[in-house]
Amino acid sequence: MKTVIAFSGGKDSTLAIYKIQQHPDCEIDSLLVTLTEGFDRVSIHGVRYELLKRQSEALGIPLREVWIPQECPNEVYQERIERAVSDMLEDGVTHMVYGDIHLQDVREYREKMLSGTGIIPVFPLWGRPVGELGREFIELGFQTVLTCVDMDQLDRSFAGRVYDEAFIRDYPEETHDICGENGEFHSFVFDGPNFGFAIGYELGEERITRDMGSGRDRFLYRDLVPK
Question: What range(s) does the Diphthamide synthase domain occupy (predicted)?
Answer without folding.
Answer: 1-200
